[in-house]
User: Fold this.
Amino acid sequence: AMPINIPNGLPAKAILESEKIFALEEDVATKQDIRPLKIVILNLMPKKIETETQILRLISKSPLQVDIDFMMVKGHVSKNTSQDHLVKFYDTFDEIKKHNYDGLIITGAPVEHLPFEEVDYWEELCEIMEWSKKHVYSTIHICWGAQAGLYYHYGIQKKLMDHKVFGIFPQVLCDEYNFLTNGFDEIHLTPHSRHTAIDEEALAKVKGLEVLSKSKHTGSNIIATPDFHQIFILGHLEYGKETLAQEYFRDLKQGKPIQLPYNYFPEDDPNNEPVFSWRSHANLLYRNWLNYVYQMTPFDLESL
Assistant:
C-alpha cells in the first residue's frame, strides 16, 4: 500500500507502524512526485486519538497517497483530548474552508440524545456541510454524522429508540455492482452503537439516495447518492476490535442500562475475547471510496 501523509509527530503514527502500515510524515512525503488525494477529517468523537487511528488505519490500506488534514469545531471544548494535541494537529473551519478537498469524513458524536439544533456546534456543522457541497468531491458521514447529514441535506429526522442498537449486525447487500460496495459479500457485518434511528419512510421518498446495505435490526446501513458526492454510514465500520467492549464495560461500571452487545463476545460471554469480524469489509469500503474519488476527481482541485 502507498503511504498516508500525516502531520509530523501525530501519536497514531507509532500505532500504525506497529501494524505494518506505511504512514509518512510530511517531510518525506514531499519527495514523491504524484498528486496525492487531499482528505480532511472532521473529528467530533470524544477520544480524538483513538478515532484518528481507526480512520487512518482504513485510509492507509489503499494503494494511493493521501494527504490528511484534521478539523475541529470552534464551538465545543474537548474534555477528553489535551488542548496541546488539538492545537498541534487540528485546524478550525476558518483555516480549512480556504481549500478544496477530494474527500471529507465527518465522524459520529456522543450527542444523539439532543435534537440537532440543540447541539452546541450545530450552526458551525451546518456551515461545514454547506461548504462541502461545493468544496469537497465526496463526503462520508458516520453514525451521528450520517444522521446529521441526512437531516441537514434532505430533512430526514431521527428518532429515539426504546433500546440501544448495540453489537455486530449482519447487513444485506442491496446492489451487488455498486462501485462503493464492490467485492462485498452478500452478507457483511457492521458494528452499531446508537440510541437513535433515521425515519426510513422519509428516506424511501428521497429520489437521489440509494440504500447500499441494510438489515431488519438496524435499518439502512450504507446510503449514498449515485455520484457518491454524499455517503452516509449509520454503523461504525471504522471501530477497532475492542471498541464495543470498552463501551460495554464503561457503561456497566457507570451503572447505565446496557445490554450485552449482540453477536460480539463468543458464546455471549464478556470474559471471552471478541472476534474482529468486520475488518475486511471496512478496509474494502474505504479502499473503494478512495479509488472512486481518485478516478473521478479533477487533477487540479481548484477546478472542483
